[in-house]
């Protein structure tokens, strides 16, 4: 039997709508597929198809909705989709670089009923920010962060941390204080997609991490009650794996720009699985009955040491995509776990982070996508 599907099935509480892979930025840690360029804009779901997805997912129990990409602002029907989401009763969140935003658009989002806007920055100052984004964006991001707040939204800033900016944590948090941010997410790069090919150049060293953590915790204490700071260390430095996606097909449903339905935004790379498409199947069938969504539900797929591990109901064996990337087998325990027979691979990666190769970052752009 492929996967055990204990009924009743969970609900897809979190719907991630990746509206497009088009993006004006070129972040070297982007989670989009390396071959994103293969999916042309003409293959993207239409407005009507997205509305059908929103309706069907809501009927299945989805409550939280994230609009992401690529850059979701590229879609000119974003306001329409937000209005539809509001009508359906979603709590909607726009995850954006702010490029493609102006104040009129922020007002239109407010009018349409968007609940939350999260703006990502690459660094605390212009030169590094724009270098990491592969384009000039910093000043516009600052202006848009202020516009978001002016229009009554909490200011939510996200900084993806890696070895090139982790030493800026104090400056990042000073910038957030200066901007009067309400929430700051210090999100360490997750090593998938473009971050996977740039892993060696992005992985922070142990010393950087210890220092960064100390500073972040000091600011958390200092800003208690005024600004909420989230700080998560890279899971490669943990002893146990993360409960990725809260389990396969348990809570998260990602719809890629072309309509492919995925249990996580990285799953497309896993071999031997055919992911269904909302152009051809209902969201209900996809979630409840498609073989791909059932593949890693339950624990029958697990190998040892996960199968007999008392923690399997807590971490679900970790991340399937990470297990595949590091071992070539998605049924293995996530090698981040120190009980994994492949944990030495993670230890080796961490050790190499003390003396990384001095090679340039491969920016996520159509030219570089041809290499993969
Ligand atoms: Fe795919 Fe973790 S990112 S299961």
Automatic annotation (TrEMBL):
<dbReference type="GO" id="GO:0032324">
    <property type="term" value="P:molybdopterin cofactor biosynthetic process"/>
</dbReference>
<feature type="binding site">
    <location>
        <position position="30"/>
    </location>
    <ligand>
        <name>[4Fe-4S] cluster</name>
    </ligand>
</feature>
<comment type="similarity">
    <text>Belongs to the radical SAM superfamily. PqqE family.</text>
</comment>
<feature type="binding site">
    <location>
        <position position="27"/>
    </location>
    <ligand>
        <name>[4Fe-4S] cluster</name>
    </ligand>
</feature>
<dbReference type="GO" id="GO:0005506">
    <property type="term" value="F:iron ion binding"/>
</dbReference>
<dbReference type="InterPro" id="IPR058240">
    <property type="entry name" value="rSAM_sf"/>
</dbReference>
<comment type="pathway">
    <text>Cofactor biosynthesis; pyrroloquinoline quinone biosynthesis.</text>
</comment>
<dbReference type="InterPro" id="IPR011843">
    <property type="entry name" value="PQQ_synth_PqqE_bac"/>
</dbReference>
<dbReference type="InterPro" id="IPR000385">
    <property type="entry name" value="MoaA_NifB_PqqE_Fe-S-bd_CS"/>
</dbReference>
<keyword id="KW-0004">4Fe-4S</keyword>
<comment type="function">
    <text>Catalyzes the cross-linking of a glutamate residue and a tyrosine residue in the PqqA protein as part of the biosynthesis of pyrroloquinoline quinone (PQQ).</text>
</comment>
<dbReference type="InterPro" id="IPR017200">
    <property type="entry name" value="PqqE-like"/>
</dbReference>
<protein>
    <recommendedName>
        <fullName>PqqA peptide cyclase</fullName>
        <ecNumber>1.21.98.4</ecNumber>
    </recommendedName>
</protein>
<dbReference type="GO" id="GO:0018189">
    <property type="term" value="P:pyrroloquinoline quinone biosynthetic process"/>
</dbReference>
<keyword id="KW-0408">Iron</keyword>
<feature type="binding site">
    <location>
        <position position="23"/>
    </location>
    <ligand>
        <name>[4Fe-4S] cluster</name>
    </ligand>
</feature>
<dbReference type="GO" id="GO:1904047">
    <property type="term" value="F:S-adenosyl-L-methionine binding"/>
</dbReference>
<dbReference type="GO" id="GO:0009975">
    <property type="term" value="F:cyclase activity"/>
</dbReference>
<dbReference type="InterPro" id="IPR050377">
    <property type="entry name" value="Radical_SAM_PqqE_MftC-like"/>
</dbReference>
<comment type="subunit">
    <text>Interacts with PqqD. The interaction is necessary for activity of PqqE.</text>
</comment>
<keyword id="KW-0560">Oxidoreductase</keyword>
<keyword id="KW-0949">S-adenosyl-L-methionine</keyword>
<dbReference type="GO" id="GO:0051539">
    <property type="term" value="F:4 iron, 4 sulfur cluster binding"/>
</dbReference>
<dbReference type="Pfam" id="PF04055">
    <property type="entry name" value="Radical_SAM"/>
</dbReference>
<keyword id="KW-0479">Metal-binding</keyword>
<dbReference type="InterPro" id="IPR013785">
    <property type="entry name" value="Aldolase_TIM"/>
</dbReference>
<dbReference type="Pfam" id="PF13186">
    <property type="entry name" value="SPASM"/>
</dbReference>
<dbReference type="InterPro" id="IPR023885">
    <property type="entry name" value="4Fe4S-binding_SPASM_dom"/>
</dbReference>
<dbReference type="InterPro" id="IPR007197">
    <property type="entry name" value="rSAM"/>
</dbReference>
<feature type="domain" description="Radical SAM core">
    <location>
        <begin position="9"/>
        <end position="222"/>
    </location>
</feature>
<dbReference type="InterPro" id="IPR006638">
    <property type="entry name" value="Elp3/MiaA/NifB-like_rSAM"/>
</dbReference>
<keyword id="KW-0884">PQQ biosynthesis</keyword>
<keyword id="KW-0411">Iron-sulfur</keyword>
<dbReference type="GO" id="GO:0016491">
    <property type="term" value="F:oxidoreductase activity"/>
</dbReference>
């Amino acid at each position: 039997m492929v996967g055990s599907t204990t009924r009743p099935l969970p609900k897809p509480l979190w719907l991630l709508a990746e509206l497009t892979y088009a993006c004006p930025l070129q972040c070297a840690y982007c989670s989009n597929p390396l071959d994103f360029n293969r999916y042309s804009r003409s293959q993207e779901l239409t407005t009507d198809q997205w509305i059908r997805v929103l309706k069907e997912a809501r009927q299945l129990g989805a409550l939280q909705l994230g609009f992401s990409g690529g850059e979701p602002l590229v879609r000119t029907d974003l306001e329409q989709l937000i209005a539809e989401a509001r009508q359906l009763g979603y709590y909607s969140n726009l995850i954006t670089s702010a490029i493609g935003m102006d104040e009129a658009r922020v007002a239109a989002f407010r009018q349409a009923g968007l609940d939350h806007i999260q703006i990502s920055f690459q660094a605390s100052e212009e030169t590094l920010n724009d270098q990491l984004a592969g384009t000039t964006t910093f000043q516009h991001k600052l202006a848009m962060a202020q516009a978001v707040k002016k229009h009554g939204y909490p200011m939510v800033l996200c900084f993806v941390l890696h070895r090139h900016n982790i030493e800026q944590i104090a400056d990042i948090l000073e910038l957030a204080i200066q901007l009067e941010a309400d929430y700051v997410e210090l999100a360490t790069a997750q090593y998938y997609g473009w971050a996977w090919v740039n892993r060696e150049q992005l992985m922070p060293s142990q010393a950087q991490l210890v220092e960064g953590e100390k500073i972040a915790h000091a600011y958390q204490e200092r800003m208690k009650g005024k600004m909420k700071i989230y700080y998560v260390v890279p899971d490669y430095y943990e002893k146990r794996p993360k409960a990725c996606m809260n389990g396969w097909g348990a809570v998260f449903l990602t719809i890629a720009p072309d309509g492919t339905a995925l249990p996580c935004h990285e799953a497309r790379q896993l071999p031997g699985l055919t992911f269904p498409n909302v152009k051809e199947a209902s969201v209900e069938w996809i979630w409840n009955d498609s073989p791909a969504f059932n593949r890693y539900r339950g624990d029958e797929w697990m190998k040892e040491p996960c199968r007999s591990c008392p923690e399997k109901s807590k971490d679900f064996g970790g991340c399937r995509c990470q297990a595949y990337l590091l071992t070539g087998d998605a049924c293995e325990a996530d090698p981040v776990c120190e009980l994994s027979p492949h944990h030495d691979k993670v230890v080796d990666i961490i050790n190499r982070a003390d003396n990384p190769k001095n090679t340039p970052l491969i920016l996520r752009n159509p030219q570089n996508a041809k290499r993969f």
